[in-house]
# Entry
Amino acid sequence: MVWNKEFECMSPEDLQRFQLKKLNETILWLYELVPPYRKKLEEASIRSEGIKRLEQLQELPFTVKGDLMENYPFGLCALPLKDVVRVHASSGTTGKPITGPYTARDMDHWTECMARVIWAAGVREDDIFQNAFGHGLFTGGMGFHQGATRIGCTVVPTSSGMTERQILLMKDFGADALGCTPSYALTIAERAEEIGMPIKDLKLRVGLFGAEPWTNAMRSEIEERMGIKATNNYGLTELGGPGTGFECIEARDGMHINEDHFIAEIIDPLTHKVLALGETGELVLTAVQRRAMPLLRFRTKDITSLTREKCACGRTLVKMGRIVGRTDDMLIINGVNVFPSQIESLLKDIPEVEMQYLLVVRKKKHLDELSLRVEARKEVYEAGREKIAWVERKIDNHIKGIMGIHVVVELAAPKALKRSEGKAVRVIDERPK
Ligand code: ADP
Ligand code: ZN
# Structure
């Protein structure tokens, strides 16, 4: 069963017709209300009437993060703040924060998209949903809150942090579903084991995770340790937060995109050429129903692919694959392209370590040196120096064998690395810029 059959199971023809209509409304809206977009559109010879066929989407100008930063805080907002009922913002770890303004109608659409996300994970009216995404400026907490409220389940807005209390509440209230980042899920699982209350033994059935990169290896780890099924969910502040892509509990192999709200394309990040279904490249998203700050062809920097294969759940919405990396978190180590996610997947093959790791890149003379701090399991660490050195060599050989790069591995003591409560930091690049 889907939340909104009309839009989640549309025929391709109906969908395209709908998208074209909404896209042209958005072009007109931007033309009239957002001067920087009017300029961009005029430069691309797009008139206020918009385009005739959806394929002409390729002729529209891109929007990049820099456009949002230059126009910080509200230069791309189409409406005066009196018509804006909410503003979220991203953490801004890579520069000025990105603002996400919403009209009342945008809020309603966001909530609808989030209800689809949560429903697709099998959460229903009679479930208890513990929402451990950070509540506040970050879009995760409030987005899930609204969607779960619309479904009518019982929401417990714990927000992130105070992990022990999370676990006690989960037990006492009997949570059926948990929402948080995957790295925080692992933190919760581990703490619960430590205090002798493994999540496995609780009622929890499903986890809705997202907001940061993770691998299938990490998914299996969380599923096994918590005794649940886990879905992957995608979104970004620029497009209004979570609610862009979501997995269905039936397939759990790729995220359906709410295509009546977002048109997805994959481009080659260098040539900007649009790629075919199945090809891997940068995800580009166009918001066709937003009013406060609709974006045309926003370059997400997230690397993935799209597929239209039939899904077990009956939705016809296109699916995006797991994010394999971001164009800006790809590490180039002595000329070899490395994504942290590749290393994370390989760690699953090493039973002696935990999925807690940190990559550090440094310049050594003229060469790049990649080191990996990863936590040993307790028994391994206690077995002494020789065993530790053996595991370190084993990891280095495994990574070299598959990725062709040498990694300086340092096995850390159990619990030595900082635990994540939100988005985990996995890479520190200390090379001079
Ligand atoms: P911030 O800049 O504060 O991190 P956002 O919450 O807007 O703000 O971050 C959005 C980014 O988070 C996405 O562009 C993507 O890189 C990452 N992300 C979100 N969901 C997922 C997911 N399910 N898998 C991988 N990466 C994700
Ligand atoms: Zn599906």
User: Anything to note?
Assistant: The first helix runs from residue 5 to 8. DSSP finds twelve helices and 21 strands in the chain. The first strand starts at residue 86 and ends at 89.
